[in-house]
Amino acid sequence: MPNIVLFSGSSHQDLSQKVADRLGLKLGKVVTKKFSNQETSVEIGESVRGEDVYIIQRGCGEINDNLMELLIMINALIPYFPYIQGFFDIPVDNLYAEPAVLQWIRENIAEWRNCIIVSPDAGGAKRVTSISDRLNVEFALIHKERKKANEVDRMVLVGDVKDPVAILVDDMADTCGTICHAADKLLSAGTTKVYAILTHGIFSGPAISRINNAAFEAVVVTNTIPQEDKMKHCSKIQVIDISMILAEAIQRTHNGESVSYLFNHVSL
């Protein structure tokens, strides 16, 4: 049976190392260099012939550089890899942070049995109903109308949020205008406390200032994006480690086991 070989791009080596530790592996040897003309060079420092290879690289920050580095690494490992997802028909698994989110809620919010899960937009309905079903609590939605990108004009709350603790759940937050407006809307409707749980915390522009000035108990994000610098300026930000999810997904893929089973049945 092939061995697992795990490589890290240069953008998030901390998360890659945590995943490797959970799998009992050493990270594969890879050297990336950027020349003065901005060209990127990748050198794989070990043989991967016949092995199962996994690469961890984030898609934020210097996104163009990170994407090109990832594609160059793939090309170095599989010399005839010409396209990205959507242009080939091999299986692709989306990984979800829901198991780690559920665990954080149960361990850190004492009133979670009396909480309500809220989506800050209608597009997140499936996400919040899944979490509310697993917790056996109610959910609500906020319908938002935008003037333009990153600027919300009006919000309409759908659902009764009087008294319970509200947990806003979204896939990402950039400038945080939406979640901060949503928090104000929930508090004015009678919610006692508001938490925000986000898979990817981009936190650009005025995001940190907005979070500091908003009435959140905590803004919780996963470590798909490094948050050490942001946490120095905002005590409300807390981080969920998802290395266990990545490690389990790699192990299941390697063993030919169901990855979707991880999100429905496996307790982390």
Automatic annotation (TrEMBL):
It is found in: Cytoplasm. Coiled coil: none annotated. Keywords: ATP-binding, Kinase, Magnesium, Metal-binding, Nucleotide biosynthesis, Nucleotide-binding, Transferase. One of its GO terms (biological process) is purine nucleotide biosynthetic process. One of its GO terms (cellular component) is protein-containing complex. Its main location: cytoplasm. Residues 4-77 form the Ribose-phosphate pyrophosphokinase N-terminal domain. The keyword Ligase does not apply. It comes from the Eukaryota. Its EC number is 2.7.6.1. It catalyses: D-ribose 5-phosphate + ATP = 5-phospho-alpha-D-ribose 1-diphosphate + AMP + H(+). NCBIfam families: ribP_PPkin. Belongs to the ribose-phosphate pyrophosphokinase family. This is ribose-phosphate diphosphokinase. It comes from Monodelphis domestica.
